[in-house]
Amino acid sequence: MTDERPLGLDGLEWRPEGVCVYTGDALALIGAVEEVLAGFARDWPAEHQSAPPLLPAGLLERYGYLTEFPHLVTLQASLDPAAREEDGRVLAPTGNALTPAACYHVYPRAADADLRAPRLFRVGGLCFRHESGCRPLARQRVFTMREIVCLGAPADVSAFLERARAAADRLLGGLGLRHEWQVATDPFFSAASPARLAQRIVPSKWEARAEGVAVCSLNHHRSFFAERHRVRAGGGPAASACLAFGVERVAYALVRRHGPDRARWERAAARLPAAG
């Protein structure tokens, strides 16, 4: 469970809409974590791309997100200048949603490909989820995700997962974070969900937990995304997997581990462990 004690970090301003404003030490901490994760990502021979804040709501529907996680979805709307109600303006849907996971922008780029070698991407940006029980840095409705994504033959993706876990261990250890990996089921599935049971039988998600929060996760999608975009590899449907870090979650764990004293977590965040 997330520690309920105040973080005591200067420059951390919590807003009731479930987001933070960073100044001073808090802004420096977020920047330090970003630099460490950027260095980590550069050690992978990956294509670099951004994750825009908007994507088509139809893409989320194709991925089943609107069915499994409707309470987390944030849709974009605009004001309809031609319509008014007694109580005010009328919202007009745009057909777009705010990005809930950075890697969702990767898979459409590989549509209809027949991969002869694994394809790696590094991607990151702001993500949006209408979370409940929000807490500064530990759980926010707007947060930053940095990911390494692999698309390829199943054996190549399995090898990526092994390498990614070892690399994450080195990075978190280099930051002085004591962590443990746990098999995870998505907490948003109902207790009776077949998907949740399947994850327990054949694990597809592992979380590295430090200081009471999941600072990163390994996600084995198998052929789920590849089949939806007709991506093939090795004579059959491709597989995919990703290693995802939550910038704010890593910052939270650093403060919990090293304290709010800037000099202490700056020394930890200045280390540059290699991905290997």
Account of the 3D structure:
- This protein is of the alpha+beta class and 276 residues long.
- It has two domains: 24-53 and 99-269, BirA Bifunctional Protein, domain 2 (2-Layer Sandwich), CATH 3.30.930.10; 55-98, no CATH class.
- It has helices at 24-42, 57-62, 65-68, 154-174, 194-201, 224-228, 247-258, 262-269; strands at residues 12-15, 19-22, 47-50, 54-56, 75-85, 88-98, 114-115, 119-128, 142-152, 180-183, 205-210, 213-222, 232-233, 236-237, 239-246.
- It has a seven-stranded mixed β-sheet.
Question: What key phrases describe this protein's structure?
Answer:
single chain, 276 residues, alpha+beta, BirA Bifunctional Protein, domain 2, 2 domains, 7-stranded mixed beta sheet, flat
